[in-house]
């Protein structure tokens, strides 16, 4: 019966999945198919099913269960550009730096796919941007190879901010008061295209008081192995 739940979620049949979940509480909520290719939670994250994710977590689904190739639910969400799912998994306390068998963290996958919003969410939640995968690549290396230079510039700016920061609190968790975006808005050495991209796409540049910075005014004035 648990396999039918996985099949329903994987096939995108959300209503059937909800009915199955509401009719029975599973004792093996993290069971996978014969290929170990993901739990129901994993596939809900692929599909972007927020309500299914809520129910599964309430029923005890593991946030860090792994597929045969070591991918966790947050890998699935990052690989499929599901920002709201990523935010919710972070809120529930998933491991941001878990590695696949290839050594890829969720941030590696977001950089490989070229998803800047996912990258920013992970960074502000405290993801480690200096972890090497099995090819000895850190996330910014992958973004560079793939040609996602805005992401490269953003990560380079973040590294410089952390390096130069006088506040140890900013080192512990970059999401506190949106410290990264706060510093990005205040640092004149951050590449202009980083400002332009993040403001153009309204990805939430904030200052530490939680108010938006008018960056444009300020500037005027002065099927691959990574698939999960």
From TrEMBL:
PANTHER family: ANKYRIN REPEAT AND PROTEIN KINASE DOMAIN-CONTAINING PROTEIN, ANKYRIN REPEAT-CONTAINING PROTEIN-RELATED. SMART domains: ANK. InterPro entries: Ankyrin_rpt (IPR002110), Ankyrin_rpt-contain_sf (IPR036770). It comes from the Eukaryota. This is Uncharacterized protein. The keyword Glycosyltransferase does not apply. ANK repeats lie at residues 69-101, 102-134. It comes from Mytilus edulis (Blue mussel). The keyword Zinc-finger does not apply. It holds the Pfam family Ank. Keywords: ANK repeat, Repeat. PROSITE patterns: ANK_REP_REGION, ANK_REPEAT.
